[in-house]
Amino acid sequence: MDAATAVLLIDSLSKAKSYVDAKLDLDRCPTCLRPIPRDDLVAIIDGQLGQLTELKELNDQRNAATAALATAVSNAKEAEGALRKAVVELQAIATSTDVAEVVALRIPWPDSSGNPSSADILADIAGKFEQVKAVLETHKDSLQRDVHTFNAVGEIHEAIARMSKEVAHLERVGAGLERAHEIVHTNRVSFVQTILDSISQESNRLYQSIHPGEDIGLERLSMEPNRRGSVVQTGTFHGHAGIPPQALFSESHLDTLGFCVWLALAKREGSGQTVLLIDDVFNSVDSQHLDRIIDLLTLEGPNFLQVVIATHYRLWWDRCKNAQGVERIHLGEWTITNGIAAKGMPLATRSLRDAVQSPHLDRQAVSSKAGILLEDVLDGLALLYER
At what angle do helices 251-270 and 133-210 cross, to 10 degrees? Predict the structure, then answer.
């Protein structure tokens, strides 16, 4: 009896047993209607079920073993295929290398005729390689380190090449900037030198007006090309040219020379709209030179919008009190509350005129102011004729 028939029969007997168990008064076979005691019928059914169940279990075991065998055969074929593929790949690698350990194995590689090698041959090849597996892994590790080193060196080489290009680019940019700096520097020096040349003659003219007949003067103003903020002055001194003024000129001559250079530059840049501010710069000059400076400023004043002179020098203050077009302002003590105490100082002629024209004549005030004016006139004559 095959397994399928046994399964159907077990099913039928199980249903029959359930029917008989439910019929307690049964006295004949429900199938053939033959008279039979119920207990005998139950015993027969139980015996048949016992025999068939054992047969079914054995059949199930046989089917399971058959399935397992089929799976094992399939796995074996798959493994053999993988092994065969691996051996082919291994053959391609091994025959193209000269690793001593692999050469020493003398592997009987499958021929290329297309006839597949047996699994035993393939397993034998795998077994030979298993013998040198540790050595080959050591070689592999060493080669991997070499590859890593090569890759690292390659990256460094690429970085060096990239940086070399960048350095070359920066060098070109740097050279261009150096050239641009040279051009700007040269043009700036040339531009400033042009200005210095343009004011040198005027500076010397102004200087000669302050120091007439002294046989000293300004020769040239020039830029120092390799220094910042530097101007070289050369002067003439009693027939000698190229003299550094700082070496031979007195303090007053140096002060007036600097003033003349500054005044010439202010005239050049002013265009008549410059306010000229002078603050206590001539304490070193004597009265004769101070008179010439005042006369020079009087002549040059129209070139400026306004000339403002701040001084503590009493001689300067006195020399300007009767100058034409000059307004003197006395700055007294100042406080935070009231600020600067400024007081206008009119000319002596104006003060005398105002005193004479007053409706209430103050003879003492008129005589005092007339005396002051007369003293100024006589001082002026004495200075003019040097007597």
Answer: 100
Tell me which residue range forms the domain holding 160.
132-270
Question: Are 112 and 74 within one domain?
Answer: yes
The arithmetic mean of pLDDT across residues 220-241, rounded, is: 80
**Statement to judge: residues 43 and 145 lie in one domain:** no
Tokens 């031979």, residue?
Answer: 248
Is 33 found in the same domain as 147?
Answer: no
Residues 39 and 100 in one domain: yes
Q: Cα(317)–Cα(310) distance, rounded to whole angstroms? A: 9
145 and 261 inside one domain: yes
Query: Which neighbouring-strand residues pair with 329?
Result: 344
Say what the pLDDT of residue 247 is. 83
Taking only the tens place, the pLDDT of each residue in 284-300 is: 788 788 888 888 888 88
Residues 6+ apart with CB under 8 A from 312: 280
pLDDT greater than 80 at residue 368: yes
* Distance of alpha carbon 280 from alpha carbon 103, whole angstroms: 106
Q: What is the mean pLDDT of residues 171-176?
A: 94
d(CA 168, CA 283) in angstroms, rounded, equals 61
Q: Count of domains in the chain? A: 2
Residues 160 and 215 in one domain: yes
Single residue among 131, 155, 187 that ends a domain in this structure = 131
Three-state DSSP class for 329? strand
Would you say 56 and 7 are in contact if contact means Cβ atoms under 8 Å apart?
yes
Q: Are residues 41 and 170 in the same domain?
A: no
- Give the helix ranges, DSSP H, for 96-132: 100-104, 119-131
Rounded distance, CA 328 to CA 247, Å? 37
- Determine the 3-state secondary structure of 278 from DSSP: strand
Q: Are strands 275-279 and 306-310 parallel, antiparallel or unpaired?
A: parallel
Structure-model confidence comparison of residues 230 and 262, the more confident one? 262
Q: Does residue 17 sit in the same domain as residue 87? A: yes
Which tokens belong to 94? 């091994």
